[in-house]
Amino acid sequence: MIKVSDDASKKIVAMMQEDGFDATKDYVRVGVKSGGCSGLSYELKFDKELGENDKVFEDNNVKIAVEKKSFLYLAGTILEFSGGLNGKGFVFNNPNASRTCGCGESFSL
């Protein structure tokens, strides 16, 4: 399962509305791809459709779609949002990551 913090949920719902998506029926697609300074990097985008290999979760008023392949790397992750002067935006708190880069956008197992 992937969880969404209160702050991340508010930001996601607002951003979805700005981009023409409906948080009650559309999805936040979370994934992992090769790349980044630690070997794997996170992907986050909005999507209106599900693929046949997607796992779907709902937490804190956000529907999350994750391809099964990426889910192996993301199980137990909490998606947070850090704002303010030193904020980085969306942050993935991933218990599976053994190492993360300084920017927090890539990780390794």
From TrEMBL:
Start and end residues of each Core domain: 2-105
Membrane-crossing residue ranges in chain numbering: none
UniProt xrefs under InterPro entries: ATAP, ATAP_core_dom, Fe-S_cluster_asmbl/transfer, FeS_cluster_insertion_CS, HesB-like_dom_sf
Record-linked NCBIfam families: iron-sulfur cluster assembly accessory protein
GO BP of this protein: iron-sulfur cluster assembly
Molecular function, one GO term: 2 iron, 2 sulfur cluster binding
Gene Ontology annotations for the cellular component aspect, listed alphabetically: cytoplasm
Organism name: Flavobacterium capsici
PROSITE patterns with a match to the protein in the record: HESB
A Pfam family reported for this protein in Swiss-Prot or TrEMBL: Fe-S_biosyn
Family according to the record: Belongs to the HesB/IscA family.
This protein's name: Iron-sulfur cluster assembly accessory protein
Gene3D superfamilies linked to this entry: HesB-like domain
